[in-house]
Amino acid sequence: MFFTRVVRGLMCIKDTVVAGLRLAGDGAVRSEVRTFDTTTPGLLAMSAWLAEHGCTHVAMEATGVYWKPVWHILSDRRLHADPGQRRPRQERAGTQD
User: Fold this and answer.
1) How many CB atoms neighbour CB 78 within 10 A?
2) DSSP string, the chain
3) pTM of the model
4) Which residue among 3, 14, 80, 91 is the one 20 to 30 A from 27 at the CA level?
5) What residues does each domain of the chain span?
6) How far is residue 81's CA from residue 4's CA, in Å, rounded to a whole number?
7) Contact 1/26 with Cβ under 8 angstroms?
């Protein structure tokens, strides 16, 4: 069975990162979700798991600066990690009417 690999995303929280994969191919879709520690060994294990499944790009969501260590580990391992873009609080305040 042939599968293409797509990362659904990473949720970066203070102590953990939740990684979700969506594998689709040959008319079948399968999802896998794993939780990793935010320690260096945990992030390296997550990076290896993503690479093992053929992932080359990930999308991250995080609060604060919790995405930074994840981004550094993935970038060092040649995975493209996009933390998304956030607008400054002043800009967001005017759009919540």
Assistant:
1) 9
2) ---EEEEEEEEE-SSEEEEEEEEEETTEEEEEEEEEESSHHHHHHHHHHHHHTT--EEEEEESTTTHHHHHHHHHHTT-EEE------HHHHHTT--
3) 0.72
4) 80
5) 4-93
6) 18
7) yes
- Give the C-alpha separation, 10 to 33, whole Å: 10
Strand-pair partners of 60: 10
What is the C-alpha separation between 41 and 56, in angstroms, rounded? 20
**What is the percent of the chain where pLDDT is above 90?**
20
**Whether CATH 3.30.420.40 fits 4-93:** yes
